[in-house]
Each structure stands twice: as structure tokens, then as C-alpha cells.
Amino acid sequence: MLRIFLWLIGLGIVAALGLVLAVFITMRSLPSYSTLKASEHAQMIVVRARDGRELVSIGPSYGEWLDQNQIPQTMKNAMVAVEDRRFYSHPGVDPLGLMRAVYVWATGGNRLQATSTITQQLARNLFLNNSRTFDRKAREALLALALEQKFSKDQILELYLNKVYFGGGAYGIDSASRLFFSHPATELKPAEAAIIAGLVKAPSRYSPTADADAAVARASIVLRLMEQQGYITASEASGIDVSTVKLKESHGQNSVRYFTDWVLPQLDFLAPDSFEPLEVWTTLDIGMQRAATASVQANAPKGAQGALVSVDRDGAVLAMVGGTDYVKSNYNRATQAQRQPGSAWKLFVYLAALEAGYTPDTPVYDRQVTIDGWTPRNSGNSYAGEIDVRTAFAYSKNTVAAQLGESVGFGTVASMARRFGITSPISTYPSMVLGASEVRLIDMTGAFAAVSAEGRSVTPYGITRVTTADGELLYEHKKERQDQLVAPYVAAEMTDLLQTAVATGTGRAAQIGRPAAGKTGTTSSNKDGWFMGFSSGITTGVWMGRDDSKRVAGLAGGSAPARAWAAYMKVATAKRPVEEFTTELTLPEWQLEPDDEAWFGAGGGQDYYFFDEEGNPIDPYGRDYQAPPDDGARPGDGYGYGDGYGADGYRDGYYRDQYGDPRQQRQQDEPRGIDQDFLDRATGATPDGQAQQLRRDTPPSQQGSRQGAGYGRTPTPRTGAPVRVDPAYAPVPSRVQPRRIEEQYQDSSGVKVVEIPNGT
């Protein structure tokens, strides 16, 4: 036993010598006190609004460095009382605290918990990470011993109070005091010092801005420890009311954080890697952000969330709200959530239809339809019968949207959505026309902004430039190329529809006293409500609903979302001039009717064209018919056979020359392109071959030029010959009811004659 005892003493002496040597070497390698004061270990980022005002500071904030004689004694006492009550007696590591931790572990504790001293915490903050390995704890203890040998207790406490993290990006008591109480740490009162000292254990849990009650409860524990250790008397402790401490107002940073959380990750791609402080200049307008936050919070139904995105005409994000309360939930519903848009999706259905040749005035039928076993229903289960495209959109007729989607193709609608910036998966089932595919609010806002921009692409962005703290430019936003997504006339027609929806349709609650265009969206069982629209160059999208997708009583796109949109847009557009929408249409030549072409002086060729159900031209006279060559003669050149055109508007001898009579050349067993009954009706002829004379005014540009040249006379048909008249005097066909066409012109073969999209 004596030999073992001697060996243990020898080993202890060797270990002590080794420890002294290790501490000496470590102490020699430590930086100087001035170097430790100047060291910072993370990047500071200041985010600014479009007018330069600071929105938020992200990263460490160290405040002013306070020397030991500037730090209030009550702050020192509070920190020592709660973090290391034997701070002034131990050598950097607390042997009593270590033995107590070992005893607790040996008597049934879950794990060995060694309480770190203030010196150990400082060593970890300066040189190590927060891993819980034995190796890290050993190095922490060695560094603490070296720090105690190189610096005094007052210096160590000064370093600690100026370096320790207190939450919210604040490092050091001065930064924490300014963050939470709006004054420097030199003015700290005992209650405020107790709150700051209580944060070190768990900054996020006890932060007064996140949970004031938890912060007050923790500060009360600090005051009790100060009383037990003799730093304050019992009467002083009872006279301190922590609950009366006034906290710094957040100045709207609650909502702003949704925006900063969206833009800051973009720095990984926009700015080079570095640890130097950065300043990020953004597009956010503080006044509009406040209005957006207020509008969402005031109109969101109880128990529901709301989100808003507002962009300028170039895509600059002016306001962004990702939820009703950032502290309770930092999930950004404006940029991350994917929800069904309901009828707001019809934007892409009608864009595809307008591009295919429909116009706002094209007649359509609101009636029950079934497509591949799917039967859409209107709100209220009512049907309006024959209406036009404008009315169908304004009142969000689901059956018409379904018919248009089937007409242009569901894949075409999906392609249109992709063209306008929708990045989420898109279904091509028939129900997709009613918004069955989930989308992001920011993507939908960009799509509506593209319509406002006359069909040019708009990409939302939030950062204008990034600089260093010294002003060195690291990144600057360049004006992006705008692709023409649809022709300007299609965008104008779409704007016409959107304007009508606000003026007289489902979006009437979004009226703001100036031209506004928009669309509502409501999903089944009132799970989601949308309103998307634009006015005076600003496009804004609003969504409301529950995160768990449960029903929200009374929620519809035309109610709370539309009201929130209007409340915000009244503020956002207040200082902008009133802008009228460009809805005057300039149609391309391929959309002009044949008669309209004649009005512009188009001559020669056939006056009427016939197409099959695939849109391909067909010959109504049969494949053996050969059209006569154009000999230069035009209507009005003269009368009589052989010298041009006759009074009926057709070349004399048309059916008696070498080209023959097509009616006699057609084979009896060969199907005709169209039956004679329909041809008579289309050309205005009665069954007995007599022309129906309908008045058509002569275009102003051609008045006078036709007098005395064969114009102005009533065409006189030749008996037994097809009747054709001068295009300027052609009968004006009235709108034919599509259902009547199907009823009257469906033969036994099942062939139906239907109205083609452009209304011909």
C-alpha cells in the first residue's frame, strides 16, 4: 500500500508539473489583451430600406466597449451571482463545482454536468466551439487556467461582459442594453442588469422581446441569488420590480423580418465570401410595409393566417408580409407556402384563350358541361346561358373556364402558366382550369405584374446593391431583360377582363377610387382566399387561410383578401398619378375577318373562306374545281359578259367559261365541304336564291369613290347562280346561337357545325 501510495504521489507530481508546463506554454501563446478586445468572430450585416433607413442588423453587434470602471457595479454583481459565485476565489476552474457535479452524477444523475466558470465561458467564446466532447472541455479548462495566469480578475470580467452573447445578435452588455432598453449599459438599473444577466443561460428562451414573462421570471431568480450572496439587502431586493422595466419598441421589425429572411440568403450568390461587415440596400418601402402589415392583421379572419406581396412595375418588392406575427411563426407564407389559387388561376386559362383568338366580346355559353367525367359547377349552381367572355370572367363562371380550357387544350394552359413564371408542379387534368395546382403567392404576383407590363415578363427582386461598411460596391442590380410573354393586344384584352372583374364582378370589394384590375380566388370549402390585382404600376397579391388547410368560415377571395388589398393599395398608390389602362386593341392581321380585310383595300382571291374542325381551309366546291386566274379586273369595272365584273359583284360568265360549273363537276359520292342550305344562309341568300339586302354603311375612307362605278346599287342575282355581293355591301351576319347550330345542322353522320373561336 505504501508503494502504491508513493507511486500515486509521484504520478501526481509529474501530472502537476505537466499541467504547469502546459499552462505556461498556452499562456505564452495567448494574444495580448488589446488584441482580444478588438477581435470579432462573425459578420455584421445591416439591411436598409429603399430610402436608406436601417431595417434590421443581422449578425453580431458589439456596441461600445466599456472599461471595467465604466461597467456598473450592479451589472458585475448580477453576473457573478448567477454565473460563477466563486469567481474571485478559483484559479479559472472551480474544483468545488467540479466535485459537486461528479457527486451528482455518481448518485444517479443522468450525465456528468460540470458547471463552467466565467473564465471557462470566456475561453470557449474566444477560442473554441460549443461541442460537448471531453477533449473540448479539457482544452477549455487549460485555456481558462492560462487566462487566469495572464490577466487579472477584473480584466477577465471586463472581457467577458463585453464579449458574451445575450441574444438578438447582441454581443456584450452595451449592445444588449441598447437592443432591449434603448440606452447604453452605463445607465443600467438593477432590474435591467438582472434581466441581462439572466439571458446568458439561454438567450433565445429568456429574451424579453420574445417572451417577456420568461425574462421577468429569470430576472427574479438573479435578484434572489444576489440577495443570498450579499450583493443586495432583502429590502433592496423587495423594492426592485422587474415587471415595470420598459422595453424598446420593435418599430415594425416583426413583419420586416419576413422580407429580410427572403433576401439575405441571396447574398450567397450576389456577394463574395468574406467576414467584413456588409450593408444591403433593398427595395422595401417602410411606409408601404407598415400599411401591408396593418391591412393583413386587420382583415385576416380569426384563426387564419395572411400573406401579401407587392411589387413595382419593374419587379421591385415594395412590401412583403409572410404571416400575421413573425415572433409566433417565422414561416414565410408569401414565398414558401404552396396553396391552391382557385379562380385566380383563370388568368392563365383566359390568356391562352385570348391568344388563340377569343376576344372579350366573343359569345360563350354558361351551361352545365361534363369533360372526361368531370362536371364543374358555378357558385350558387346557377347558369346564365349565352354571355360573352368578359362577363364570364367578371363573374368567374367555372363552366365557361372549363369549356375554354378544353377548347385551347389543358396543356396549353399549363404552358401559359409556365411562361408567366409559375415554378411549382402543374396538373393537366380538366379540373386544373379552376386552380387545382398549388402555387406560391410571389409567383402569382409576378404573373399578374407581367399582364400589367403589357405582356412583358416581371421578376420580383429585393436587393438593389451590396456594399462594404466602407462603401465599396460589391453588387448592383442590373435591369433584367423583359421577354414578351404574350402580344400586347392579348395583355390589353386580359386587362379589360380584370378591370371588369373589379368594376362589376366578384372583385368589387377591391375598388380604390382609381382604375384597378384584379381577380378573386376561392378554393373548395373556403380553405383559401386570394385577391390578385394591379393599379398605377403596383401589383399586389393577397392570400389568406389556415396553415392546416382547414375550412375558414366566410372566407372568399372577394371578401377579406379583397378588402385587405384595397386597404393597402389606397396607401401604396396615394402618391402616384392615376393611370388609365391601355385596353384599346390592335389585332394582328390573322385575326381580321375576311370582310374587314376588304375594308382595308385587300382585293382579289376568294371573298369567303371555309375551314374544317381542325382549322384547315377546305374547298367548298370540290377537288375538281379550278379557280380562275386573276385577270386584274375588279368590281365596278363594267357590266356585261366578258368585260370584267357585273352588277352582282362577280365576274361575268363565271360559271360559263372554260373552268366549268363546279356544281356539275362534283362527284355525287364525294362529300361536300358544306351543305347548300348553310351556304345560302351564310351568304345571305334565301332558299329560292334571292339575296337578302341588309344595309351596311360605306367606310368613310371609301365614301364618294364608289359613286357611279357600280357601287351603291342593290345586287341583282342571276337565277340559278350562286349569289355573291360586293364585300362592302355584304350582309352583316348576326350572332348565331351555338346550340341552334348544333340542333339545326347536325346530319346523320354526326358532323356538327360549331362557332369558331374568333366569332366568325
TrEMBL record:
Stretch list, region Disordered: 611-760
Gene Ontology annotations of biological process type: cell wall organization; peptidoglycan biosynthetic process; proteolysis; regulation of cell shape
Domain Glycosyl transferase family, first and last residues per copy: 57-226
GO molecular function: penicillin binding; peptidoglycan glycosyltransferase activity; serine-type D-Ala-D-Ala carboxypeptidase activity
Protein name as it appears in the record: Penicillin-binding protein
Pathway as given in its UniProt record: Cell wall biogenesis; peptidoglycan biosynthesis
Keywords, ordered alphabetically: Carboxypeptidase, Cell shape, Cell wall biogenesis/degradation, Glycosyltransferase, Hydrolase, Multifunctional enzyme, Peptidoglycan synthesis, Protease, Transferase
Organism: Croceicoccus mobilis
Recorded family membership: In the N-terminal section; belongs to the glycosyltransferase 51 family.
Pfam annotation, one family: Transpeptidase
Biased composition range(s): Gly residues: 635-647
